[in-house]
Amino acid sequence: DIGSQKERVVTEEEWLQKWEMGNIGFHKEQGHPLLQKYLDVLLNGRSGLRIFFPLCGKAVEMKWLADMGHNVVGVEVSEQALKEFFSEHSLPYCEEPVPEISGGKMFQSTSGNISLYCCSIYDLSSSIVGKFDGVWDRGALVAVNPCDRQRYTSLMINLMEKNSSYLLVTVSYDPNKHKGPPFYVPESEIKSLFG
């Protein structure tokens, strides 16, 4: 039971405000230990993969995987977060509009192996970003409003190639004691969402 969280909605404006105020306790300066631990599961012996970072923020793992030779694509509503990612890693980039998305922008490293979309995740589709061999969901499903989980999961499934790997990190706690985000997503719900 997700308790009182079921009705909770966090707006895009609230997320943008978190970035503006520096209230980003969800950002980690070091690569996530679970990605390091389960990297073999994500890569499955393959190289040169297209890896998707939903709600990427300025995740340091994006550069880490790109440096290994993978193509990284992320999406984030905060332009500030994306610009901070490139500046903190001293990566030159170019910015261009995404014609299919009203107000959407894409920030791409000049090396071409990191492409970060600035828009709502729900503005994306496989016709815009293609399909992915792997997904690293460190903080997206737990940040998505509970009422949007089905929509989010359907999009993720649509963006995945047949033999994709999906690494998902969730948090476990009593949802009646914390309003979220991060939201509590019970294992039974993950199974029903992803099948």
UniProtKB/TrEMBL annotation:
**Which InterPro entries does the UniProt record give?**
SAM-dependent_MTases_sf, Thiopurine_S-MeTrfase, TPMT
Q: Where in the cell is it found?
A: Cytoplasm
Catalyses: S-adenosyl-L-methionine + a thiopurine = S-adenosyl-L-homocysteine + a thiopurine S-methylether
Report the domain of life of the source organism: Eukaryota
- Which coarse location class describes where this protein primarily resides? cytoplasm
The broad enzyme category this protein falls into is: transferase
Q: Which family does it belong to?
A: Belongs to the class I-like SAM-binding methyltransferase superfamily. TPMT family.
The protein in question is named thiopurine S-methyltransferase
- Specify the species: Neopipo cinnamomea
